[in-house]
Design goal:
22% helix, 7-stranded antiparallel beta sheet, Jelly Rolls, alpha+beta
Length: 250
């Protein structure tokens, strides 16, 4: 019986550690060509804003597509992104922004009931010609908080903890996938329990000169209020070790 319990605990710890992130409130899955209410902020004044055409009805084809082969971490498709599209707001490739106006999509409550926003990002170095860097930031816009970028101290990155949101082809060759997270507790505290509006703007910057195809992919954008499964797994395995050690001592 003791061996059976120990094996079960080990199995539980392993499943927590290695399972894909599947909990939390998903606000971006991008299945079957859906925008899930996200818009290209560069086009906010050209009919793509939810107020002008329904909640995120269009993402411009010059910048976005969908992939079933790269960047898929939840479901069967990812949102494929060309960071060198000439429709970038501040010049080709420098500033592309994917935005979600949560009040249009009934997701303000999901924002206020959690404190962490995470998204899975995949880079394909072979498709980011001339790039020496890429990085991500998150702007939150809401009453009491204003229009402000969350500081890097609020970020975590499963692949690059020393420079969250940062990528370069030397350290991350080939195709690499990571989870980037932001703790927005400070913004939440400033907004209060019932903000009238909340806008999230995911900003991508790179010096890539061109892409042979989409070079970045997004999937599984979600709100959570607890650590991601990999972190939980480490805690779980620590607990398993303590339990097993206690059992051996008796």
């Amino acid at each position: 019986m003791k061996r059976y319990v120990s094996a079960s605990l080990i199995g539980l710890g392993a499943s927590l550690m290695f399972s894909a992130p599947s909990f939390g409130q998903v606000i971006g899955n991008w299945e079957n060509g859906s925008t899930d209410g996200w818009i290209d902020w560069s086009f906010a004044n050209e009919g793509f804003e939810p107020a002008n055409g329904g909640p995120g009805t269009v993402l411009p084809a010059q910048s976005y597509g969908y992939s079933t082969t790269e960047g898929v971490t939840l479901g069967s498709e990812s949102l494929a992104f060309d960071p060198t599209s000439p429709v970038a707001q501040y010049g080709k490739g420098y500033y592309q922004a994917l935005s979600n106006k949560l009040e249009y999509n009934g997701e303000v409550g999901d924002f206020t009931s959690n404190s962490i926003f995470s998204i899975d990002v995949t880079f394909d170095a072979s498709k980011l010609a001339g790039a020496s860097y890429a990085n991500f930031n998150l702007i939150v816009n809401g009453p009491g908080w204003g229009f402000n970028t969350l500081p890097s101290s609020t970020m975590s990155d499963t692949a690059n903890p020393g420079d969250p949101g940062g990528w370069d082809p030397t350290d991350f060759p080939g195709v690499t996938t990571r989870t980037i997270s932001w703790n927005y507790s400070a913004a939440l505290a400033a907004m209060g329990a019932n903000p009238g509006y909340v806008e999230m703007i995911l900003v991508s910057s790179t010096n890539a000169s061109n892409t042979t195809a989409y070079g970045e992919y997004f999937d599984n954008a979600r709100f959570t209020s607890v650590p991601e499964p990999a972190s939980v797994g480490l805690v779980g395995m620590t607990g398993v070790g303590l339990l097993l050690r206690r059992r051996r001592s008796h």
